[in-house]
Amino acid sequence: MTLLEALALLAIGTVAGFINVLSAGGSMLTLPLLMFLGLPAQEANGTNRVSIVLQSLSAVTSFFRAGARHVALSLRLSVPAVVGSLIGAWLALQTGDALFEAILIAVMAGSAVLMLLPQPRLETRPLTAERLTPTVTLAMFAIGLYGGFIQVGVGVLFLVVLYRMLKIDLAQVNVFKVLIILVYTLPALALFLVNDQVRWGYGLVLAGGSMLGAWLAVKVNMSPRGAFVVKWLTVAVIAAIILRLLLG
Description:
With 248 residues, the protein is mainly α. The chain has helices at 3-22, 27-36, 41-65, 71-92, 97-116, 134-149, 154-166, 170-194, 200-221, 226-247. Helix content is 79%, strand content 0%. Helix 6 (134-149) runs antiparallel to helix 7 (154-166). The two termini are 29 Å apart. It comes from Halomonas campaniensis.
């Protein structure tokens, strides 16, 4: 790895980490960069998980230092997401590229519509386990299924669904999202490791940038205008994903 390559990984990693923590879609930047630097697609996919895990860990740590809680509730939401992701990964192996992209466009367009609907009436009572209804659990399974199947933009779905179902502020939803994604990504990273598809040098340099971006994103998320930034950044990311797919 040259110095220029390392600087590119750090720079793009910082931007991707910022986007991933506040919204989703950072992998649209990091995966092409890793492949441009010469990694085969599977190695790039596996190596990118190193960055996702470490940026999520950085964000979770920063959120809790800033006073965020609900670890137990987040872990409960993670279980159905992990189960769904394992099934989704298997389904992805049976699906052609054209159908794959059509499903992604449809899901992202639907997410944009949901995000732009009028804000739901937010709950003022404390978030407790009783509010994690079977419908919420099923939704987490479905998002995990999607994430295992496609992965791109999965954070958008976590934001939209939890925002609408739990009726808590988007900034609070983001705390749940990053912890769920941390748990959700660990089994996938382990699978890539077992199959020798991780390049640690590239992954750790990329992760260095993404952890910085995650730290900056937490500062924005916890600010008074955090929910506003999350909403409109998410809409912009959805538009970018759809445009990129339509233009090929």
